[in-house]
Design a protein that fits this description.
CATH class of the largest domain: Alpha Beta
Radius of gyration: 27 Å
CATH topology of the largest domain: Conserved hypothetical protein from pyrococcus furiosus pfu- 392566-001, ParB domain
Number of domains: 4
Number of helices: 14
Structural class: alpha/beta
Oligomer: single chain
Largest sheet: 5 strands, mixed
Shape: elongated
Helix content: 40-55%
Number of strands: 5
Order of helices and strands: HEEHEEHEHHHHHHHHHHH
Strand content: 5-15%
């Protein structure tokens, strides 16, 4: 009688080699580290932190267990996946590293680089931002070629939808992260250190670079701004186009005061008589006004939601 397989035995987990597309026939070579240059505009940071120290110690004891992925470049190689391992190997005193060399075009290399690094447990918002943007541009470039549809998919998809599918985020969330690539470095650092919320950072990303510079100084001297202050600033710029540093500070302060000060509205009796006959009591008028305001707010929220969806889906098809 054949042994009955348990459910868990039918499950095949992906290992690192499968994620990177390393097949059994490919053999790792010992390549001189000095011959390997970093991937151009590599968005993932290599930091000498506690985890890097652990990796260095592991390599000292066991060597580099998983080969890095490189591609030929000139007389040497370009790193695709393995920047942290190579840095740790150098710190551990190694001069060579096991590597698999593979021919790849720029778009494929970018996609493989992003996917490999996206497997890390902790990825900073800025790293996601530039990685998603690089993957988006690569997929868009592939889609523009007559010999390709979308990457590994039989039907044509929008590049932003394909990135979302590949990284496991919503399309709108991918778009929000890509907006961060328009931030100047000091503001991007605030997002990485969790001092500026992602939603606020997305709003800030629409400001021109000079205004962002002013804003970074304002935050340094006065503390973090709120999203409604940025909304007030964007509203001013939509009308006036340019703004000075002093005027920006004034607008931000006015936006703060407008949000924090108690608000009340007085409707003149003449206006009330125009809209309501003498048969309506003040309580009746109040109920009707509130009902009309509720209806207006529902319509306004629906419009803003539709606008946000359209803004988040403005990418071209691949």
């Amino acid at each position: 009688m054949a042994e009955k397989k348990r459910p868990g035995q039918q499950m095949k987990l992906q290992n690192v080699e499968e994620i990177l597309g390393v097949v059994g026939e490919e053999r790792a070579l010992e390549i001189d580290i000095s011959q390997i240059k970093p991937f151009k505009d590599h968005p993932f940071k290599v930091v000498d932190d506690a985890k890097m120290d652990d990796l260095v110690n592991s390599i000292k004891l066991n060597g580099v267990l998983t080969p890095v992925i490189v591609r030929p470049s000139g007389r040497g190689y370009e790193m695709i996946s393995g920047h942290r391992r190579m840095h740790a190997a150098t710190r551990a005193g190694l001069t060579t590293i096991p590597a698999i060399s593979r021919e790849m075009d720029d778009d494929t290399a970018t996609i493989v680089m992003v996917e490999a690094n996206d497997q890390r447990e902790e990825v900073l918002p800025s790293e996601k931002a530039f990685a998603y943007k690089m993957k988006y541009d690569a997929l868009k470039s592939q889609g523009a070629r007559s010999d390709l549809t979308s990457y590994q998919v039989g039907t044509k998809l929008r590049a932003d939808e394909e990135v979302a599918r590949m990284v496991g985020e919503s399309k709108n969330q991918v778009y929000r992260y890509m907006r961060l690539t328009d931030l100047i470095q000091p503001l991007l650092d605030l997002v990485d250190t969790k001092k500026m919320p992602l939603a606020t950072a997305v709003e800030v990303s629409y400001l021109d670079k000079d205004t962002q510079e002013y804003l970074a100084l304002f935050i340094r001297d006065n503390g973090m701004v709120k999203s409604y202050q940025i909304a007030a600033l964007r509203k001013y710029l939509a009308e006036c186009k340019i703004i000075s540093k002093s005027k920006m500070e004034e607008v931000l302060q006015e936006g703060f005061n407008a949000k924090t000060m108690p608000k009340s509205i007085t409707i003149p009796e003449k206006k009330l008589k125009y809209y309501f006959s003498s048969n309506y009591s003040l309580k009746d008028m109040e109920k009707i006004i509130y009902r009309l305001l509720d209806d207006w707010k529902a319509k306004s929220d629906a419009f803003m939601k539709k606008h946000a969806q359209e803004e988040g889906g403005n990418a071209d098809e691949v």
